[in-house]
Automatic annotation (TrEMBL):
InterPro entries: LRR_dom_sf. This is F-box domain-containing protein. It comes from Noctiluca scintillans (Sea sparkle).
Length: 308
């Protein structure tokens, strides 16, 4: 539209219209040619309910300051925040990443989803920000990040008691404890990628506290009959991912008893819709109500079953 078009429509209406067009994915690319529409992008209402993404390139400077500086303050009404701090481990980029995260916490106060990638080397600086900012988040994901310990997990749970889903890269030696269970949000529906080692009682306590529907155990997590019994007793599980090794180390997928035990676990979960394990396990063919989903190259030993 040309600049001389009479602005008889309120700016708020233009903002909501622009927001709807962007979120509807009806156009592959939008390039505003009118100065009015270019200015409209800086209005807070244009970003209401939007999903925003900070890429690594936004950490680079433009005209002497990071490119994200004038952008993030307009995101106060956004709903979901995605940030990728790839290669921002040192020098100016690391400083820019810290400032970027501080601005996100300062302005994105109504965002319900926060999804961070490549958080490496930022945990010490960012953990306090995660606990003291983003008061409205319901979904938190930390992937490609520093290994998270159970103590810090409990801190995050305590800071965000309304969390519905939490997925993170946990430290190999991090094991869920009673402290974490006591801090877990009661409304938590999704949790990954955790390790309960062989302690079925801690897992059972968590499942009693939270009506978990989606649970991903870490690939290197421990497993035992007690853990299996706790999972079987949960009536809410819809999605379940098991660790790579269930029996003796190095015996993945080689034991018929292991395959039969997995099949029995699947049958014991009445609402289970999607299931993931590792190995061959021809015994799973007896689950006729499930179909196998092809896996990507490099994870051929992963088995994903979906209810027909």
């Amino acid at each position: 539209m040309a600049d001389e078009t009479p602005q008889v429509i309120p700016v708020e209406t233009w903002c909501k219209t622009l927001s709807f067009i962007v979120r509807s994915h009806c156009l592959q690319q939008i390039c505003p040619v009118s100065r009015f529409f270019r200015n409209l992008v800086s209005e807070l209402l244009s970003w209401e309910g939007a999903a925003v993404y900070v890429r690594a390139v936004e950490l680079e400077e433009q005209d002497g300051r990071p490119r994200f500086d004038p952008l993030i303050p307009t995101w106060s009404l956004c709903d979901r925040v995605f940030a990728d701090f790839k290669d921002a481990h040192m020098g100016k980029k690391r400083k820019a990443a810290r400032r970027c995260f501080a601005l996100l916490g300062q302005h994105c106060t109504v965002a319900t989803g926060l999804f961070l990638r490549n958080w490496c080397l930022m945990e010490r600086d960012g953990l306090q920000g995660l606990c003291s900012h983003f008061p409205a988040i319901r979904h938190l994901e930390l992937s490609g990040c520093d290994f998270l310990g159970q103590g810090n997990c409990a801190r995050l749970f305590a800071a965000h008691p309304a969390l519905l889903s939490f997925r993170a890269t946990f430290a190999p030696k991090a094991v869920m404890t009673a402290e974490v269970v006591e801090a877990a949000p009661r409304g938590l529906k999704m949790l990954g990628f955790t390790n309960f080692k062989l302690d079925g009682e801690v897992l059972r306590a968590l499942l009693d506290r939270c009506a978990l529907e989606h649970l991903w155990l870490a690939r290197t997590a421990g497993f035992s009959d007690a853990v299996s019994a706790a999972l079987s007793a949960s009536p809410h599980l819809v999605t379940l991912s098991l660790p790579e090794t269930l029996g003796a180390v190095g015996a993945r997928g080689e034991s018929p008893a292991e395959g039969n035990a997995i099949a029995a676990l699947v049958r014991a979960c009445p609402k289970l819709d999607t299931f993931c394990c590792w190995g061959e396990h021809p015994e799973l063919a007896q689950l006729e109500e499930f179909e196998r989903i092809p896996c990507s190259r490099g994870v051929e030993h992963r088995i994903i079953l979906r209810r027909r």
